[in-house]
Amino acid sequence: MNWISNYVKPKINSLFSRREMPENLWTKCPECGTMLFHRELAENLNVCSNCDHHMAISPRARFANLFDGGIFSEVKVPEPIADPLHFRDQKKYPDRMKSAQKSTGEKEAMLVAEGEMGRTPIVAVAQDFAFMGGSMGMYVGNAIVAAAERAVKLKRPLILFSAAGGARMQEGILSLMQMPRTTVAVQMLKEAHLPYIVVLTHPTTGGVTASYAMLGDVQIAEPNALICFAGPRVIEQTIREKLPEGFQRAEYLLDHGMLDRVTHRKKLREELITITRMLTGAPPAVIADLPAPDKPVEAPAA
Q: What pLDDT sits at residue 148?
């Protein structure tokens, strides 16, 4: 009896019992509500295949598509003081940091990398909105300074992907001080005559917009990205007027001269390659390599 109850019955139950499906296989598009299979969504660079809505994408996933073969090396960023103000709201600041690190798998809200993009050596920086809203703290300031110094040392263009809700309130005035620090870092690039290209993604707001995110030599945005200092809801409540349709979205800013381009995420890499090579005076990028011949071709006899 023990053999039947302990082995045979559990084996039968495991064969015929209902299997639970993982919850993360499907993602619902926030714009049109379409259920998207996670593999297809990842292959489409987190862009909805039904309505073309651009969802958030992590810095590592973005860099995997940006760099040749998805190969890049991280640039070391100096570590700031962990909790300078001993800030606490509903949680302690260190606890919020640990929670964000666990959910994203990243150390902080910004990733700095170097590598080749279409055989063009570059330094790239990307913010992660999933990490405490991509908020600009001391680490983010250190990351941009480190990226600028690395770009100047290697004489490479710097490409920055912004996505932030503004300054990090847990660091107070120390967070706001990153605005002039990052402005000085951008000036270093300009003095070295190196291109600084900014790609504004959804959302880019607050002190980030008021500093390094709007100082690029070329300003590109992803479609329908919210780009502003104060959000439209705050402005409506302040002036008590209805704002124009699409106000503070990428297309609206392009029409009013604040952006140079609005580019689909799937076409962004090719455009960045073209722009960086133009700004650095390099020849046009090689689209593809011809395969080597199987054996040497001999010249015909005279």
A: 98
